[in-house]
Amino acid sequence: MKAKLTLLRVLAFFGAAYVAGCCGALIFFIAEKGFPVLGPQLFFGDTKPLDAILGLRPVWDGIWPAFAGTLCLVALTMLMAALPGICFGLYLARFARGKLKERLSLAVDMLASVPSIVMGLFGFVLILVLRHTFAPGATTCIFLAAFCMALLVMPSLVVTTRSSVESLPPNLYFTGASLGLSEGQILRRLLVPAAARGILGGVMLAMGRAAEDTAVIMLTGVVVNSGMPAGLGAKFEALPFLIYYTAAQYMDENELLCGFGAALVLLLLSALLMGAAWLCQRGMERRWRGVK
Has this prediction a pTM greater than 0.70? Predict the structure, then answer.
């Protein structure tokens, strides 16, 4: 028995070391290649930063349009996915019963199993259908990309919200009921704040997926060079597609290093989003516990 426990500990240690080592090596490699080119020149090229940020002048040789396009895509995706996904998870956890719950859970699992390239094809076919019916001028754009991305990330929001609420101790609900709180008050004031850590974990996963996925946006609106996003119906640039295109089509070493710089910026952007979500999580936990 003791030998089995020791073997399990050794396997667990090597598993953790393997994952941490791979992540550390990947981050170190990208940082080593991308950090030397990280700076205003990488973002704005020869354009003045203020003019580029305000959209007064185009940026031809920098990654700023792709960076702004990625931020817009993530924001639009979360606007479309966050509230429906969390509400759906709460419904499954607290209100759905019997076969309806089983069928809805199966639908979420099936949606989660759809590959991202298939979701991109769905968006592309949707545009073709719209063109041949009541919207002849419809075309691929950032709104369509965000819609397809929202469908892609929504299952993670639903599953994490449902799991977080269902894992709470039953005494929490009974305590709220004994205090005379209604079902809605228990959900809003007790269960959701208590499950905030898991819910925000799902939000972080969804935001990271929206920032890095390439297959969906390749078929739904991203292009190599379009400038700043000009509206919901416009084409856009994005960092993951820029990295993919640079890796496949680079002409010299400097262009390849710019691709590594873009990859490092994407990593830092993901870390920034995770940090913001962590601060929100801490704030909700402190508020729920009554700590000022």
Answer: yes
